[in-house]
Specification:
By secondary structure, the protein is of the alpha+beta class. Helix content is 30%, strand content 23%. The strands form 4 sheets. Strands 3-2-1-6-7 form a 5-stranded mixed β-sheet, with helices on both faces. A 5-stranded antiparallel β-sheet has the order 14-13-12-15-16. The longest helix is centred in the last third of the chain and has 17 residues, at 299-315. The structure holds adenosine-5'-diphosphate and magnesium ion (MG).
Length: 381
């Protein structure tokens, strides 16, 4: 049964003619390739009668290009890590008319027409972290997903955990290590962490994703190396006590104003025994992880997790979509690991699969997100 049945056509803006969508993909983060794969999948599934799409790819160096909207060019078959290649027309930032957002360098006198909504299908820093959302706000255009503050808080694992605990939402024990403190005295930091946390711990860049830069530390003498790896990605590092247990995820879909967001079916990530944790390789490159949808859980635990997922979404003031990731600890407690405001979005990614389990198909999910974005408030929020 679709959980979207309570959204009426009016809530979602009713039927429109083709609306112009800018699909923004690629980007400067280390999750560039994942974004390209998600973008190709969205282009394949999108109802092109209803949505007139421009594909704007951001190269790893940060250049915005008007690319082909052909999914087979964006993510060619057999290429596991596709990327946006330079050589396409450069997209310029808007002039004084915010509605006519994008111009291409070769045709300065012409803009690309009215843009109704932007889908920033970008993962990680400079995309999912409020920076692009801020740019879109200054352009006064509607966009899919969370706004500036919410995106920024969710991207920063330390800020996120602080905000969630302030709302009474359970998170595991953690410590933050700032750049200056580490540079002044790694041994003092180590002493503080050893006092505050029990082994094993996870050392993570505060603002990254796809497990990039994360290490599991089983002995304190491994800390320094793990810190240096995390610091390659972010000078701000979070060190978390390991929560032994099961990994459960829940999709949340925003609702029109005055309605509560909805929680999807739950999924479990089951790792093969040779994996220490859900790292980049097991996420994207091999079969080390199995995604079980729906997760096999006692109904009361499942309801509790779905409720905490919606409360986390509301606590961070998310919009549109988010995937809330949990640990169901061996001792029975439930803690939130993280909130992703632009989760992986291919049809086989967790977020769409969890909604499909509730009868919401991939293309309907995209329609709903675009409709919500068309109707959201603009301006400072
Ligand atoms: N505190 C923890 N306890 C147990 N496992 C953890 C913990 N933190 C991270 N992990 C493992 O590392 C993976 C990646 O960590 P996560 O915080 O989700 O980073 P990312 O944002 O890169 O996905 C998790 O999916 C989980 O397998
Ligand atoms: Mg994660």
């Amino acid at each position: 049964m679709s959980n979207l049945q309570s959204f009426s056509d009016d809530d979602l803006g009713g039927a429109h003619g083709p609306n112009r969508v800018v699909l923004l993909y690629g980007g400067r983060s280390s999750e560039h390739a994942i974004s390209c794969v998600s973008a190709a999948a969205v282009l394949r599934a999108l109802d092109h009668q209803r949505w007139d799409v421009l594909a704007v790819g951001i190269t790893p160096a940060g250049q915005w290009l008007l690319t082909s909207a052909d999914p087979d060019q964006i993510a060619p078959a057999g290429v596991s890590l596709p990327s946006v290649q330079s050589g396409e027309p450069v997209v310029l930032m808007p002039g004084d008319d915010g509605a006519h957002l994008f111009k291409v360098e070769e045709h300065l006198s012409q803009d690309l027409g009215l843009v109704d909504v932007v889908f920033p299908l970008l993962h990680g820093p400079w995309g999912e972290d409020g920076s692009v959302q801020g740019l879109l706000e200054t352009m006064h255009v509607g966009f899919v997903g969370s706004g500036v503050l919410s995106s920024a808080i969710a991207m920063d694992k330390a800020a996120m955990k602080m905000a969630l605990s302030a709302h009474g939402i359970p998170v595991g024990p953690y410590e933050v290590v700032h750049d200056g403190e580490w540079r002044l005295g790694p041994s003092r930091v180590a002493a503080r962490l050893e006092f505050a946390l029990e082994l094993p711990v996870f050392v993570k860049p505060a603002r990254a994703g796809s497990s990039i830069g994360i290490s599991k530390v089983n002995q304190w003498h491994e800390l320094e190396q793990a810190m240096e790896l995390a610091r390659l990605h972010d000078p701000k590092v979070i060190v978390e006590q390991s929560v032994p247990g099961r990994e459960i995820e829940c999709g949340v879909l925003g609702a029109p104003r005055d309605q509560r967001a909805k929680a999807s079916a739950l999924a479990e990530i089951v790792l093969s025994p040779d994996r220490e944790f859900y790292d980049f390789e097991s996420k994207y490159l091999n079969d080390a992880a199995t995604l079980v949808v729906p997760a096999d859980l006692p109904p009361e635990s499942a309801e509790q997790i779905r409720d905490i997922a919606v409360r986390s979404f509301e606590a961070l003031e998310c919009e549109g979509l988010a995937r809330v990731d949990f640990f169901l600890a061996d001792n029975g407690s439930i803690v939130v690991n993280e909130v992703n405001t632009m989760p992986g979005f291919t049809p086989t990614s967790m977020y769409p699969r969890m909604w499909a389990e509730f009868g919401v198909q991939y293309s309907a999910l995209i329609d709903t997100l675009l409709e919500l974005a068309l109707n959201r408030e603009r301006g400072l929020r």
